[in-house]
Amino acid sequence: MAGEIIAVGEDVKKWTQVSGSHPRTLVLRGSSDTSFAVASGATVIATSSSNEKLAEATKLGAKHTINYTNKPEWDKEVLELTNKVGVDFVIEVGGQGTLPRSLNAVRIGGSVAAIGFLSKDTSGLDFVLPVIMKSILVRGVYIGPVSEFINMNRLIEANPEKTRPVINKVFNFDQAVDAYAYLKSQQHVGKIVIKVA
Fold first, then answer.
1. Where do the H-state alpha helices sit in the chain?
2. How far is CA 84 from the centre of its chain?
3. Is the pTM of this model over 0.85?
């Protein structure tokens, strides 16, 4: 999830997870929203299949980046980076195919926010044992409440340079189909904008 059509709901959903848990360390599965996490005071480990997207995440403040194509066992890399402790928080966008790695990467007593299901992997998933053994809170999130939208906007106002969205490409309204095709290609770094006026 390196970007998406600008949708306040998506930003609030992710902001709710970062602000509500006050993590010191977190893994962003995908390179988006690094700036929100950094502005909130978290140490960010960003993952992506694209080195270009990881370079952008570094510019936005990610302390560590992992290309999960080159390192498919990215969870083990996270454990190495955290001295085998794990991170406080993982924002999980892959779903069934990547959730086991997120559960492995999170610390005892940590949290995983399941906000997507982008992975095409449909292998069997037994997550009950790791959740119990590590006392992990797994929370499905669809969207955040209005109160978090207000808090997110306070963060943006207080940190305008850190939280300015990365705009990858702007499409006119009559090019909306092209914009969605570009989104589906996952070649972008940042937001895709469709101008309505």
1. 8-21, 34-39, 51-59, 74-81, 99-105, 128-133, 146-158, 160-163, 176-185
2. 21
3. no
- With a CB cutoff of 8 Å and minimum separation 6, the contacts of 57 are 28, 31, 34, 44, 46, 48, 65
C-beta separation of 33 from 12 below 8 A = no
Residue 157 burial by Cβ neighbours in a 10 Å radius (0-12, 13-18, 19+): exposed
Q: DSSP class of residue 30?
A: B
Burial of 84 per CB tally in 10 Å (0-12, 13-18, 19+): exposed
Both tokens of 144, joined, read: 């955040």
**Cα–Cα distance between 33 and 17 in angstroms, integer?**
11
- Average pLDDT over all residues of the chain: 79
Q: Which residues pair with residue 66 across a beta bridge? A: 47
> At a CB cut-off of 8 Å and minimum separation 6, what does 123 contact?
96, 97
Q: Which amino acid makes up residue 55?
A: A
How do residues 8-22 score in pLDDT, each as one tens digit?
344 544 545 555 555
Q: Is the dihedral of CA 61, 66, 68, 70 positive or negative?
A: positive
